[in-house]
Structure formats: C-alpha cells, structure tokens
C-alpha cells in the first residue's frame, strides 16, 4: 500500500518507473500512452534529452540562490524568451513553483498595484463559476468548482464573487443567438461591478479556455472582448489564468491571442516547464511594473524557491524546444486531427453530449441523454470508470468530475504532448473510443 497521499487517499496507483516520448512505463511492464500529459503538463512528453541536459548543466553550475540576494542566468534568459517582444504589453515575469502560487501572486500583485496608484478602496475580485485557479486558499476563493470549495467554504476569502462563465453547451438558451448570450454575460458582469461599486473592483479573473472543472470549454467569439471592455471602463485589471491552456496548448503560445485581447496579468505553469521541474509564473503588464517603479518599488510577496535556477533552466529548455521544433504548429495540426477523430469516433455516441476544445486540449462530456443533457449519478463514477478502461487499453487520460452549478458532471480531458504524431493521435482516439464503450457497458 502506498504511503504517499494521492488524490484519493490510500489508493494504490500504478507505479510509473520510466517515461519516453509519449509513453510511460510501469513497474508491471505496462507501456501506456500519456494521452493527457498528466493534467495537460507534459507538453514535450517524457525523457527529452535537451531538457535533461539543461537541468544537469544548471545543477553543475548553481542549484539555488535566493532572489533577495541574486538573480540567475536561467531565470533571466527565461524571462527574455517569454517576454522578448513584450507580447500584449507584458514586460516582466515572476517565477514560482506551481499554478496555485502563480494565482496567489497575481491576486496580491493586482491588489498592491491599486495601493501603488492611490486606489486603496479596491478590495474586490470577480471570478467565474466553473473556473479553477488552484487549491491554495486565495486561488480556491477565486475558483468556481463548488465541490472543491464546499469543505473550505467557511474559510475562503469574501473578497471574491462569482459570475457565470461562457459555457454555451450548458447555459446558452435555445432561443438565444451567440451575440445575445455573450451580451447576457456582459450584462451580468456589468451588474456585478455595479453591485460591488465599480471603483471597488480590483480585477476580473478567468481562464481563456476552462480546464480542470468542466473540461476544455472555449468562450464564444467576442466574449473576452466584451469582458475586457467592461474591465477597462471601470479601471479594473484582467487576470487571465493560462496555467492549463497556455504555452502553446491551444495552438497559439498564449490562448488570449485567439480572443483578440491582452491581459494585465497572466498566470502560466504546466506547459511552462512541461513537468520537468515544478514551475509556474506570472507575466505582468508594463503599466503595473511602471506603477511599482514609481511607487514603493517592492512587491510585498515572495517565496524561498522563487525563480529557482534549476526549475527555470528546465523551463527555458522546454520553451526553446517548443520554438526550435515549431511545436505550436504541430499542436494546431494534431489538434485538428484529434478533434476530427473524436467527432468521428464518439460524435454520435448516445452518452457523449459534447466534444470541445482547442488545439491539443480537447474534452468530452458524458450525459445520460443527449436531448436533456442530464448528468450521470455521481455514485456511478463514470469518469473514473473511463479512466480505468482507458488504462486497461494502454492509455492515460485525465478524468474531471467537475461541477455544473453544484452538480457532478463527467468530463474527460485529452491533452497529448505537443510532439504527438498522426499515428499517436489515431491510437489515442481509438483507445479512448473503446474505453468509453467499455465503461458505459459496465454501468
Ligand atoms: N489554474 C488552472 C487553470 C489550473 O488548471 C490549475 C491546475 N489544474 C491551477 C491553476 C493550479 O495549478 P497547480 O496545481 O500547479 O497549483
């Protein structure tokens, strides 16, 4: 029995002993396709020699320095690679060890920004239902997964309120055009600003493509532009959480590029280091940096392992491979193949209500009935059954039991490494299709 606490306490998961490309090998000799890179993390797959060499080299140079005393080459070069041409006006980076830490830093940086510019009354944040921003208390307070929030509700921050996400499959009304639905959501956000007092709002927080709660939900065209306009009108910041959907995953380096907007603060993590080291970060707009420069000059926040040299060296190598090997173009091509394959194999399945996503970030949502979109009884654990059935067929995929307004929903996320070939994608589709059939048959 494992003595390491896993998501399900006292579970005994398979023992992974080696990774190679898109495959993971277990102690029992199983060879499994890593069809979701964990939780959309392993963007280069496993055992990348260039990344491993960069980590070893950094270890041999210097493993650790504290940012109160030194900067380091890997962190500086990583910031240059990410921010060289100031994408979207983002000019500086802060590196931490996870997505949740990045979210905490974004929350605090945004609050301190308004102190720097003399607006201390701004104390409120607006985030979205079905959003996920991490499991630390600040990030969870911004989160809209009601099952994850429930045990901790009494200790979450009241600085956050939640509005509806743009989730057309579930919440667009039959008699509503796309424009009308987007306008309804804009009206709701505007009303929330008015309820809180627009002068009191620090930021609106959202994932450009929703990941961990309901699986790869893209917004309708024009939605983010409208949200950006509302933030601008009220002088609030826009914080975009690209922990899961960023760093090339959706077919552009940043998911916001496809929305025609730019954030004031962006959180990145998973695809930043591809799992080779724990690393997250925030990318920060120049006007925020300028305010700090003109003001206190210091961010009242930080962690011991901030801008860790080995983590930054790993991320730097990952980012160089993505660029040198033109992998974002492969994400676009393979993403189209994956979406088309899933649609062909599962599009008419009586229990597959929706297939959605962007790039190599695709999900299926399971329903009892496609007409009513009713969800399965959570006790059936359909998403877990699909996970197990996929394992039995040599495929690892990421099950999400995210909530749809408080109720359990069964979602499966498919997020293969960016190096996936057409044959890899076809194998994933085939194995997943069979796994869904097996799991449904077992009900
Ligand atoms: N934000 C988003 C959008 C995420 O998907 C996640 C992780 N699934 C997080 C934040 C938290 O990241 P971490 O688990 O690294 O703390």
From TrEMBL:
It holds the Pfam family Aminotran_3. The keyword Signal does not apply. Keywords: Aminotransferase, Pyridoxal phosphate, Transferase. Its cofactor is pyridoxal 5'-phosphate. The keyword Ion transport does not apply. GO terms for molecular function: pyridoxal phosphate binding; transaminase activity. GO terms for cellular component: cytosol. Belongs to the class-III pyridoxal-phosphate-dependent aminotransferase family. PANTHER family: AMINOTRANSFERASE, AMINOTRANSFERASE CLASS-III. This is Aspartate aminotransferase family protein.
């Amino acid at each position: 029995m494992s003595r390491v606490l896993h998501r399900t306490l006292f579970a005994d998961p398979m023992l992974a002993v080696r990774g190679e490309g898109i495959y993971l090998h277990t102690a029992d000799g199983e060879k499994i396709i890593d069809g979701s890179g964990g939780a959309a993390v392993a963007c280069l797959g496993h055992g990348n020699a260039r990344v491993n060499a960069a980590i070893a080299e950094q270890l041999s140079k210097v493993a650790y320095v504290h940012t109160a005393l030194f900067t380091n080459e890997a962190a500086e070069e990583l910031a240059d690679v990410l921010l060289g041409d100031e994408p979207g006006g983002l000019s500086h980076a802060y590196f931490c060890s996870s997505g949740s830490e990045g979210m905490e830093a974004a929350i605090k940086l945004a609050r301190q920004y308004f102190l720097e510019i003399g607006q201390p009354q701004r104390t409120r944040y607006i985030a979205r239902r079905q959003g996920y921003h991490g499991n630390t208390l600040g990030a969870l307070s911004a989160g809209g997964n009601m099952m994850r929030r429930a045990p901790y509700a009494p200790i979450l921050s009241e600085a956050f309120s939640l509005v509806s996400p743009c989730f057309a499959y579930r919440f667009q009304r039959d008699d509503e055009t796309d424009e009308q639905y987007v306008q309804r959501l804009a009206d709701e956000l505007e009303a929330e600003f008015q309820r809180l007092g627009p002068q009191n709002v620090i930021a609106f927080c959202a994932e450009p493509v929703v990941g961990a709660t309901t699986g790869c939900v893209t917004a309708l065209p024009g939605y983010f532009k409208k949200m950006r306009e509302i933030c601008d009108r009220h002088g609030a910041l826009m914080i975009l959480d690209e922990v899961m959907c960023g760093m090339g995953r959706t077919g552009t380096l940043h998911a916001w590029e496809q929305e025609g907007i730019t954030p004031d603060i962006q959180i990145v993590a998973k695809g930043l280091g591809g799992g080779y080291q724990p690393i997250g970060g925030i990318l920060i707009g120049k006007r925020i940096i300028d305010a700090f420069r003109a003001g206190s000059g210091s961010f009242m926040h930080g962690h011991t392992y901030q801008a860790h040299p080995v983590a930054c060296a790993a991320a730097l190598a990952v980012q160089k491979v993505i660029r040198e090997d033109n992998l974002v173009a492969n994400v676009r091509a393979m993403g189209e193949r994956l979406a088309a394959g899933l649609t062909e194999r599962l599009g008419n399945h009586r229990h597959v209500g929706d297939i959605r996503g962007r790039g190599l970030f695709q999900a299926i949502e399971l329903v009892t009935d496609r007409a009513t979109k009713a969800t399965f009884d959570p006790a059936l654990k359909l998403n877990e059954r699909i996970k197990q059935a996929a394992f039995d067929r040599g495929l690892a995929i990421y099950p999400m039991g995210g909530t749809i307004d408080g109720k359990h929903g069964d979602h499966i996320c498919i997020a293969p490494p960016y190096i996936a070939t057409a044959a890899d994608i076809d194998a994933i589709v085939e194995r997943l299709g069979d796994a869904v059939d097996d799991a449904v048959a077992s009900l």
